[in-house]
Amino acid sequence: MRLKNKVSFITGAGSGIGQATAVQFSREGAIAVVVDRNLESAKKTQHLQDLRSGTRDRGWLS
Questions:
Q1: Cα–Cα distance between 30 and 36 in angstroms, integer?
Q2: Of the candidates 29, 27, 35, which has an alpha carbon nearest to the alpha carbon of residue 11?
Q3: What pLDDT is attached to residue 62?
Q4: Helix 16-27 crosses helix 39-53 at what angle (to 10 degrees)?
């Protein structure tokens, strides 16, 4: 867990490189703040983070 207790703010996290980065950072222990203009895509990324990191922390701002 190289990024434990670090906070990352990832824009464009609903798909592509941003999504992969958010998921990987969560896997490494970071608190990954997911930002995307499409709320459904952001929720999908959050779900992937939950599956891969075992966490369920979230808050939504639209």
A1: 18
A2: 35
A3: 52
A4: 30
Helices (H) and strands (E) in the chain, counts: 2, 2
CA torsion, ordered 36, 38, 43, 49, to nearest 10 deg: -40
- For residue 36, which of 60, 62, 12, 61 has the smallest C-alpha distance? 12
Task: Pull the structure tokens for residue 42.
Answer: 């952001």
pLDDT along the chain (62 residues), means of 10: 89 95 90 91 88 63 54
Between CA 37 and CA 45, with CA 43 as vertex, the angle to 5 degrees is 95
Q: Which helix (H) or strand (E) holds 39?
A: helix 39-53
